[in-house]
Amino acid sequence: MALTTASTPTVQPQDLVRAPAKRRGRGGGPRREGLAGYVFLSPWLLGLLGITAIPMLISLYLSFTDYEVLTPWNEVKWVGLANYERMFADDQSYWHAVQVTVKFALIAVPLKLAAALGVALLLNRERRGVGLFRGLFYLPSLLGGSVALAIVWVNMFNREGAFNGFLNIFGIEGKPWVNDPSWALGTLMVLAIWQFGAPMVIFLAGLKQIPNELYEAAAVDGAGSVRRFWNITLPMLSPVIFFNLVLETINGFQGFTAAFVLSNGTGGPIDSTLMYSLNLYIKGFTEYEMGYAAAMAWVFLLAIALITAVFFGTGRFWVHYGDDR
Amino acid sequence: MIATRARETGRIVVLLVILGIVLYPLIWMVGSSFKSQPEILSNSSALPQVFTPGNYRDGWSQFDVSFGRFFLNSILIAGLTIIGNMVSCLLAAYAFARLQFPLRGFWFAIMIGTLLLPGHVLIIPQYILFKTFGWVGGIAPLIVPQFLAVEAFFVFLMVQFMRGIPRELDEAAKIDGCSPYGVFRHVLLPLSRPALVTTAIFSFIWTWNEFFRQLVYLSSLDEYTVPVALTLFIDSAGQASVGPMFAMSALSLLPVFLFFVAFQRLLVEGINTSGLKG
Q: pTM here?
């Protein structure tokens, strides 16, 4: 996706897979520069090994044990695949959480992207005030992930909330949606969709990159606006759609704060908002089953890696990178 | 001609309606924070009938520790996070963008990999680590990683930015006798200011809104940050505290809102990269 100012760099999808071009340095020779490279890299390397890689490997080991938070290291017992068996065979709440999370992502992510694309198309004009609209639509993306906004949201969909006030205008009697197991997750989906501003701005930048000549040529050929959208806008925008889809899906699977606030950390009502991350939190930090939670975190990682791989694998059938690809 | 005009007007009307729906929750939040207790239960509109600023006073001192302390804790963590991210990510970015060293391509690929690593996967492993260090119940687990460039997003942002700085400047500095350290100090550090500002702003907003890690690592009331303290209102779910809860929620979003007003242009222009985080 492209940044819009000269002062900020342009990011293209291919940058993600390509290291900066090699160039031989002169001053001081390659040995000295090699040393300097590692000096500058050392905080990052320390973080990568100490804060990310080694803890993950330790947690992989612990996922095969009965480790609990207060278990002394010498009393940790190897239990083999027991945690994983429990996850896949015995633990009803685990499968329930998987279903809740998948349902959330399957519904909220496409709707959020559709809203983002729709508003971006409406805004994609050279007109005064576009900048202000763009900024205001983006505001929810800045505020929406916070506890404060989740609190407001829950109250908005409660019995005396703004949503029921709105329904009352039409004479519809509302109910406390957040306490209803069949609606609670829906209110969280609406909260996610409400934050469509971030992908919208990325869509807008993508729309600006589509050469106007394409539309003019199509108009000359007699293509109507619907056909121009399907045959020009969508294909030309497909790299940006792909980018937004991958990121929003990964984000969607990690929903936590709003579900925590709505259910006061329980995943209720009747486990209807038990998102994967919230279930992980409950198992690890309120039931102290760290070994089991470590296993859950690893399965989570593998699942998201698999989904991302599927996106990248199918992407080449529908993502167009222009003539050079 | 008239048809285009009409369509253009229609477009603006649709945009305004959507904007109204999008902004209404924020207006409702601020309005409700000034409603009296009985009114919160009866009036679902955004405008309070009786203007009740007392919610802010009550909310501020709702718990044994005042919200002033919670705000200071949040500011401290956000401030240290900003410094940590700016320093450590800039150093790493300089190495990736400008220096030749063994395994550079390998480490760069790993860095990109961590960019896609879902953060929640790391919660349990890191908790176990910090528990072993005896750091749980303090701010160290929230700060130390930021000084070790764990936010790959900012490393990537700065690498991308540095790619746009002409290499001729480095070469000139080298001819003048600068070492790699000198080139960093005299060329890339001063020229990277815009990327550092973007990093600082996003570091602030993300840290301010962050919840999961703060929830896990902070254990006593006087360590609590604003988001963790706000959840205490939910625990004490008594209807009596809904007004104060709204007041403190609105107040806690004020700093982010002010950042938005002050840096609107920069934020919106920087979003494309921020989109990596949503």
A: 0.85
